[in-house]
Amino acid sequence: MKHQLTPEIEEKIKALVSDVDTSHHVHLESMIQTLIKISKENSDVHDVNIISNTLRELLESYRVFLPYRDVRKVCLFGSARTKPSHPAYQISEEFAGKITAKGFMVITGAGGGIMEAGNKGSEVNMSFGANILLPFEQRPNPYIDGDAKLVSFKYFFNRKLTFIKESDATVLAPGGFGTHDEAFEVLTLVQTGRCAPRPIILLSAPGDSYWDTWTDLVHKELLGQQYISDDDLFLFRNLHSADEAANHIVQFYKKYHSIRYHGPLTVIRINSPLSDRALADMNKKFASLLVKGAIEQVYPDDLPFDNQVYPGIPRLVLHYNRSTFGRLYEIIDYLNHVAD
């Protein structure tokens, strides 16, 4: 039968996995089974080569980022063609300095222009480079070249996965097709709930209308013709100040910590507990977003499925409707500004 392995092969996989020192035996066994099935059922060497290269790239990415998993990071995108004399380069460099001074790290695409500005402006040892190997060979900029926190990718999809997976905020300076690709991808992922809420900032220098024009288009055409909803406008901020951008990102994680979904439940982790008054106020303000019940405050010991990570902070548990993800930003904004 297609997609089935013989009992002998399955037993060999189990034996092999049992000898590996890991806590992920079930997942490892499943991965090996899938790889063998692909190899048996697909005779196209090119397809198998893509999978092999993909896994190697992800392995290298994990090696680079794993030691810094507990440090929040910001992706900075923008044109590779922007010159150091351009205001967009200068505000990007300034932003990188300000956000890394606040303890965040910066991830760039490792090339020139805005990417170079991000690595150049970051404090020492506070930036990464995720380079893409192109036919005309994009060289890493001198501010990340040779750094242990530089990783190169053959495939854009691996690189884009890394940008999202390893970061907590996205900042976009003016740029071309690639910048808009990254912008619309992260907006789509957040809009559909496939990515946790994060600050998404359109950053340009004072007097630069680049993102103002883009925002006008979104309002007039996308919202005007109902291709998006009013709630989707909460997903991004159009800013013209490096200070404002850095402060917005820091403020976003002041009270709010992170989010996860478990079955019908939405779990919002918060850095400090809410008062009874604030919790009651939340339930009044956001009752329309709940499928049923109320927002409850609990602690990790009360949630066996979510007590292995961030064990010291409380949680808010709710039956969120999961259809208006833009309104999660309203909840986060409330949490970050609530006066207990």
Could you describe the 3D structure shown?
It is globular, with a radius of gyration of 22 Å. It is built from eleven helices and eleven strands. α1 (7-18) packs across α2, α4 (87-101) runs parallel beside α5 and α4 (87-101) runs parallel beside α9. 30% of the residues are buried. α7 (177-191) links the parallel β5 and β6. The longest helix has 21 residues, at 45-65. The protein has a seven-stranded parallel beta sheet, sandwiched between helices. It has a four-stranded antiparallel beta sheet with strand order 8-9-11-10, covered by helices on one side. The protein has helices at residues 7-18, 25-41, 45-65, 87-101, 114-121, 156-165, 177-191, 210-223, 242-252, 276-285, 328-337; strands at residues 73-77, 105-108, 127-132, 150-153, 169-172, 200-203, 237-239, 256-262, 265-270, 290-298, 315-320. Helix content is 42%, strand content 17%. It is α/β, with parallel strands linked by helices and 340 residues long. It has three domains: 7-66, no CATH class; 68-252, Rossmann fold; 256-337.
Give the topology.
Blueprint: H1 7-18, H2 25-41, H3 45-65, E1 73-77, H4 87-101, E2 105-108, H5 114-121, E3 127-132, E4 150-153, H6 156-165, E5 169-172, H7 177-191, E6 200-203, H8 210-223, E7 237-239, H9 242-252, E8 256-262, E9 265-270, H10 276-285, E10 290-298, E11 315-320, H11 328-337
Parallel strand pairs: 1-2, 1-5, 2-3, 3-4, 5-6, 6-7
Antiparallel strand pairs: 8-9, 9-11, 10-11
